[in-house]
Specification:
Low-confidence stretches: 46-52
Mean pLDDT: 85
Structural class: mainly alpha
Shape: globular
Number of strands: 0
Length: 214
Amino acid sequence: MTMAISEMLIEQNNATVAFLQAKDASSALESSILALTNSSRIYDEQQISTYQTRGGILDEFMLFSATDNESVNAASGTFIYEHAVIIPTTIEIDSTMLITILIFNAALAHHEMAERSFCHPDTRMRLLRRAKNLYEIAYESCDLEQNLLFQFALINNIAVIEQDIGNVSTANQCFEYLMSLLIVFVDQGYEIQLQHVKGFVANVPLAIKNAPAA
């Protein structure tokens, strides 16, 4: 990846993040789609980077986000992990990691747009399915074992969508897994990560909350 393309994509990504932080879902959606479209030039021009970003860098980027705006959607009563991933301009990043971040932020932009009150039901469902597909692509694109917070965010948001579109059993399986991952955070003393996912308890069905301990 040439420096010019990398810098352009990082700038576009961070513009998407700024729109999401400002709750401007429409502009974020447009910006994220533009970033993904531009990212195709990496492959069209065969400019895949041989530089490899260290394994846990995704979680490090996610921890740059503020955690003072964790909230549960008043209408649905669900918690969406809504911190888009900003890329520091001072850090070198490989093409695979960069595109994974672009995909995640695009998924989040679609998800946030679907949650807008003015969204037509058919449009909302289409946006949710696109968001889910993008989250799933991001899930397959990185080393999740070294990026537990990123893994948590992806699975949580996929589960919220599965529940929203009526796949309750699939959603509950995801939530059960996230409960076990939450215990890992507690056991490992990941206090900062816990601050990022403290709203998750709103997503856990009562049956899971009240399940007896093993």
